[in-house]
Specification:
Length: 117
């Protein structure tokens, strides 16, 4: 058993980038969902919304608050009648380097990783 533990410790650093990429799927899916909700809202009201509740988006409870499984906090950073910017910010430092992963999406569906973890 000790050998298995040592092997896991040796492999873990090389697996951290893979773990971070896997976790970022959560951010991408959430932001794509917000994008769809914003487009629907725009078709109905001819403007984008800065209110996730008005869009019908429900933030899953965050792991940091022991209320759920979400690793990312989703928010609308900016909304004008013709544009919006939504952000998903990691609440967990996946690789322990002090950087928290951040993704953004705009009204055109441009999904960009702003800060890598």
């Amino acid at each position: 058993m000790v050998i298995i533990g040592i092997l896991v410790l040796l492999a873990l650093p090389s697996l951290m980038p893979l773990i971070s990429r896997t976790r970022s799927i959560e951010a991408k899916q959430a932001l794509k969902h917000v994008h769809t909700l914003e487009k629907t809202y725009f078709y109905e009201f001819s403007k984008f919304s800065n209110d996730l509740n008005a869009l019908g988006y429900e933030q899953e409870g965050l792991v940091t608050e022991n209320q759920g499984n979400a690793n990312y906090l989703v928010e609308i950073v900016e909304a004008t009648p013709t544009s919006f910017l939504a952000r998903a910010t990691a609440q967990v430092d996946f690789d322990g380097d002090g950087e928290f992963n951040v993704w953004e999406i705009d009204q055109k569906g441009n999904l960009v990783e702003i800060i890598k973890d």
